[in-house]
Amino acid sequence: MRQRYLNIVAGLALGAGMWIQPDFATSATVLPADDASEVIVIRNLVIKDGAVSCDLVNKSDRVIRDVQLLIRHVWHWKNEFRPSDDSPGEAVFYTVETEILPEKTMPFTYNPSTPLPALPDGYFETKVSVAGFTEVVP
What we know:
138 residues, Immunoglobulin-like, 3-stranded antiparallel β-sheet
């Protein structure tokens, strides 16, 4: 009889725990790239020898933090019809851990850990895009 009582109490406790939902928990929302670029805007982009500087603008009405930037160093061969097997292109995800207040701008600078090589058979094109961010919900 005691075991049956404990099973009933445990079942009720688990059921109550599943029924009660905390108000502070919210789910993550995944935005399409076009929508994300409306929240965080990259302005005044300057790229020189793989180094990147720009302004990150928070266009939302909430604080944004942990902005993830995708910095791609795309390699273009001079002879695209006969490229080498070894492309020196690379990509880096960089997280800007500073909070950006609503409607505010934050300057950003990135320098690659090693300089991009100067090779005679092509050139680099550096591209920067917003890969993700966290929106702080009060």
